[in-house]
Amino acid sequence: MPMLQNRIAIVTGASSGLGRAIALRYAAEGARIVIADTIETPIEGGETTLDRILAGGGEARFVRTDIGDWNAVDHLVNETVSHFGRLDVMVNNAAIYTSTNLLETTPEQWARVIGVNLTGFFYCCKRAAQQFLIQEPVGEARGRIINISSQHGMVACPGDFPYGVSKGGIVQMTRQIAVDHADDLIICNAVAPGKIVTGKPGVANDPDALDYSRRRTPWPRLGAPDDVAGAALFLASDMSSYMTGINLMVDGGWMAA
Questions:
Q1: Active site residue 26
Q2: Which of 53, 94, 162, 164 is 20–30 Å from 122 (CA)?
Q3: In this structure, are residues 28 and 52 in contact, taking their beta carbons and an 8 Å threshold?
């Protein structure tokens, strides 16, 4: 049987990159997917995540969502439950960055990054937990929250002050939710990617940065979106039912070196 048969999952930032890979992997394992993003067109180009899932025989829908807006997140969860009947997995992936250090970061940049990467995750976690509490458990859990953090939630993110701080906050948010809501049968974990090569343009694919990451990563290749999707699948499945509050590194050994 597929690992997520008949589970209902929201994946934020699922039009592109890691979120797209997670949504496609979940759909392939039987989940019904709500793709939450500000745009539907993939940054990498090609067909949309929704079209890919539908073409593969899966069930999905797209809900345009800015996670930095509580009303938008509330609408997202309401739409999900109205259409599919419940919510089993909330994957918080959508994030932004500025590539600025402390002195370069403007108050507006700080507010925007924290507003999406930290406050937006808070909104999604809170609204998901509210829904979990009013539905019956499936197996041992009423629902699962999976936060996409980063290795830069554990070590500094050189040259990107607001992003690094926000990812550190997500790691602690994950622990807090796991401990505070274990008795409610809410599981909360994080996945911390290392250097993952996506189709995202700009600083993420700068040749010097990629060269540094290759030299810094012990495993003889850099990560791919499917590596993160595999970890997110494991945490969404019943195989990880006794795991909560962890920050699962998917980094090719970066943090061990």
A1: no
A2: 53
A3: no
Which band of pLDDT confidence, cut at 50, 70 and 90, is reported for residue 202?
Answer: low
What does the buried/exposed string (b/e) look like for 103-132 if buried means 16 or more CB atoms within 10 Å of the residue's CB?
eebeeebbeebbbbbbbbbbbbbbbbbebb
Cα–Cα–Cα angle for 120, 101, 65, rounded to 5 degrees: 20
Per DSSP, 197 falls in state -
* Nearest CA among 92, 98, 85 for reference residue 138: 85
pLDDT confidence of 203, banded at 50, 70, 90? low
Task: List the chain domain ranges.
Answer: 8-256
**Type of residue found at 249:** M
Asked if 11 and 34 touch (Cβ cutoff 8 Å), the reply is yes
- Give pLDDT tens digits for 207-229: 888 888 999 999 999 999 999 99
Residues 56-106: tens digit of each pLDDT: 999 999 999 999 999 999 999 999 999 999 999 999 999 999 999 999 999
Residues 26, 123, 163, 212: which is the catalytic one?
163
Phi, psi for residue 199 in degrees, rounded to 5: -85, 10
| 120-to-48, 166, 173, 212 alpha-carbon distances in Å | 23, 11, 12, 31
Distance from C-alpha of 115 to C-alpha of 249, rounded to nearest angstrom: 25
Tell me the CATH number for domain 8-256.
3.40.50.720
Alpha-carbon distance of 7 to 17, in angstroms, equals 22
